[in-house]
Design goal:
Length: about 170
């Protein structure tokens, strides 16, 4: 209730109500919820800089390229400058990294499972977690989201794909 009142209520109490409602999300470790609240709160106050900087930090800490993208877009639209030093998202595990690389190479779940010596169901479980983490629904989306994340980390310079280019592989078939 405080959050809604902070967004639409009396301007004098707006910031206090917003801060109080977001404190609960901070205390309970609800990072994604906090990030969305910070984004919304930033649209309701005259100077959203500190809110959107915190939202960018939270999105980076939880490793969400989707949330970081929303923060960047809103900040750009409103002329808010985010800190230049970006913190890298927490790294993928070795298995997750290998799975993403194999997906980029165009390998099937069965081929990945055989190569990693795990079941296809284990590969499916890893892919499901990776889809959620990168905010995508398909293997192609995973490969492009991962490439986009690497570009963000390198300040816009594209990094070469590891292994074979999936588009080159598809063209050769």
């Amino acid at each position: 209730m405080d959050f809604a009142e902070g967004l639409f209520g009396d301007e004098a109490e707006r910031r206090t109500l917003l801060d109080r409602s977001m404190q609960s999300a901070r205390e309970h470790g609800q990072h994604a919820k906090l990030c969305w609240m910070l984004l919304a709160a930033g649209t309701a106050v005259p100077d959203p800089t500190d809110l959107w900087v915190e939202a960018h930090t939270v999105a980076s800490e939880i490793g969400s390229p989707v949330l970081r993208s929303h923060v960047r877009r809103l900040a750009d639209e409103h002329g808010v400058r985010l800190p230049l030093g970006r913190s890298r998202e927490p790294g993928l595990s070795e298995v997750q990294t290998r799975i993403v690389e194999m997906v980029e190479q165009g390998m099937t779940n069965r081929q990945i499972a055989r190569d990693l010596q795990v079941s296809e169901k284990t590969v499916e479980n890893h892919l499901t977690r990776l889809f959620v983490r990168f905010g995508c629904r398909t293997r192609y989306g995973l490969a492009t989201a991962r490439i986009g994340t690497r570009r963000d980390e390198d300040d816009g310079r594209p990094s070469p794909l590891r292994g074979e280019d999936p588009l080159a592989r598809a063209a050769s078939l």
